[in-house]
Amino acid sequence: MVASTARAPRAGSARPAHQARKRFGQHFLVDAAVIDAIVDAIDPRPGETLVEIGPGLGAMTEPLVERAGRLTVIELDRDLAARLRKNAALEVVEADVLRVDFGALAAAARQKLRVVGNLPYNISTPILFHLLDAVEHVVDQHFMLQKEVVDRMAAAPGSKDYGRLTVMLQWRYAIESVLDIGPDAFDPPPRVDSAIVRMTPIAAPAGVDADRLREVVTVAFSQRRKLLRHTLGRWLDAHGFSGRFDLQRRAEEVPVGEYLALAAAPDGAVPPGEAQTPTSP
Fold first, then answer.
1. 27 is known to lie in a ligand binding site
2. Which of helix, strand or coil describes residue 218?
3. What is the mean pLDDT of residues 221-226?
4. Which domains does the chain have, with CATH numbers?
5. Where does S-adenosyl-L-methionine bind (predicted)?
6. Model pTM?
7. What pairs with residue 191 in β-bridges?
């Protein structure tokens, strides 16, 4: 899948010589109107701790710095990181974002983070789950992603886009699709439409075990065309579940709240890893 991790200078400026690198999924954002709309949606303020993932050539970085004063950027491309270090207002972390400790960044800043960026489309889901582990350290997140992924993130129960990704993000974030972006906004243009998503953390419901939720959701969506009695029903039997749950549905028909209820360790449940031998429903 084509990804977008880097950007070109704002319209009207000379473009530095930098060849987009396919292995990093680089597509440079060049539409000035789109850039302004994204920054307006983020609405950065002085004194906030902003972290940008994949700043590339700095098309979005520059207006963010203009409003916020300072910015931490995470860039894997060595050449682009070297360019970025020339800007004294930037703290450059040259690293794979999947190895960055966002909790440590928040601790160093002594405040929660506002995370923004144009995520590599080919590894966007691993990045979203990596950030999920640091949700307590985040004020909000604004990302450009493949529109198809944003649709899945923001989906409602019963839709074809509703799935494991939906549940595992919506249990900790309020998710809003903010802006659709066409391929022509990039150079070179990707083969997919893009969108900006806003992710605002919400408090974890009391009693929900994150590992158990992950297990429940994975099992439920393992065969999404089948009724849950064929998948989740077996899992619930194996865990001694004695409560009521409608298994005559498919996984995409179950609201997030019902998955959370199952993950709240109901009476009779066996902790993850201690399941009995599954029985037939």
1. yes
2. helix
3. 94
4. 22-201 (3.40.50.150), 206-281 (1.10.8.100)
5. 27, 29, 54, 75, 96, 118
6. 0.85
7. none
